[in-house]
């Protein structure tokens, strides 16, 4: 099946740039493989990577909103590096959790990411969580660094950690594995309750 009539510039711009869908999500919707989407995005239409698109978007946001975001991160944010069941698999994220749905939706509208909610039992109330993955978090935290007070060290640590993910798809070296473990242990220390940094 030929996809040239389907994977037009306009469709890919709408799905990949405007909606922020991944190449795999687009492939699933169209009914083709990941490499076909990659070819049309990179070789045929010369689209930038999602990271570059996100960097350009964050760079265009005014300083007042960035400073406000930094206050939310310092107050209700969580900057995490977590280890999964496998000893060499780590996940990093920026999260903000609160009861105010309007602010959480504002975060998603302005900075992307995902939202989920759950019911807290004690006290009985709805909780809302906004989160970004490691690369998205790093891009945004670089902008908020001048305004962060409480969580500046956690932010810097996550930014360094995200740089170890840039060679995605290549074999994980022992050096990178050891660096990730060190950054993971540092983040655990920074995030200890009551610790002053």
**Shape annotation:** globular
Structural class by sheet pairing and helices: alpha+beta
- The name of the CATH topology of the largest domain is Endonuclease I-creI
Q: What's the helix-strand series? A: HHHHHEEHEEHHH
Q: How far apart, in Å, are the first and last alpha carbons? A: 58 Å
The number of helical segments is 9
Which runs of at least 5 residues are low in confidence (pLDDT < 50)?
none
Number of domains: 2
Q: Mean pLDDT score, rounded? A: 87
User: Beta-sheet strand percentage?
Assistant: 15-25%
- The number of E-state strands comes to 4
Major sheet attributes: 4 strands, antiparallel
CATH architecture of the largest domain: Roll
CATH class of the largest domain: Alpha Beta
Sequence of strands across the biggest β-sheet:
1-2-4-3
Radius of gyration: 19 Å
The percent of residues in helical segments reads 40-55%
The CATH homologous superfamily of the largest domain: Homing endonucleases
Which key phrases capture this entry?
4 strands; alpha+beta; Endonuclease I-creI; 197 residues; 53% helix
């Amino acid at each position: 099946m030929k996809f040239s009539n389907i994977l037009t510039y306009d469709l890919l711009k709408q799905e990949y740039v405007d909606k922020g869908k991944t190449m795999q999500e687009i492939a699933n919707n169209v009914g083709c493989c990941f490499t076909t989407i990659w070819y049309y995005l990179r070789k045929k239409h010369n689209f930038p990577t999602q990271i570059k698109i996100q960097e350009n978007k964050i760079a265009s946001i005014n300083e007042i909103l960035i400073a406000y975001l930094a206050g939310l991160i310092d107050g209700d944010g969580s900057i995490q590096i977590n280890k999964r069941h496998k000893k060499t698999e780590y996940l990093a994220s920026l999260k903000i959790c609160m009861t105010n749905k309007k602010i959480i939706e504002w975060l998603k509208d302005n900075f992307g990411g995902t939202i989920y909610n759950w019911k807290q039992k004690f006290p009985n109330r709805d909780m809302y969580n906004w989160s970004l993955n490691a690369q998205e978090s790093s891009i945004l935290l670089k902008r908020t660094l001048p305004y962060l007070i409480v969580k500046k060290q956690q932010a810097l640590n996550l930014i360094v950690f995200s740089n170890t993910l840039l060679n995605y798809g290549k074999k994980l070296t022992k050096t990178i594995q050891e660096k990730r473990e060190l950054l993971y242990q540092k983040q655990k220390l920074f995030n200890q309750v009551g610790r002053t940094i």
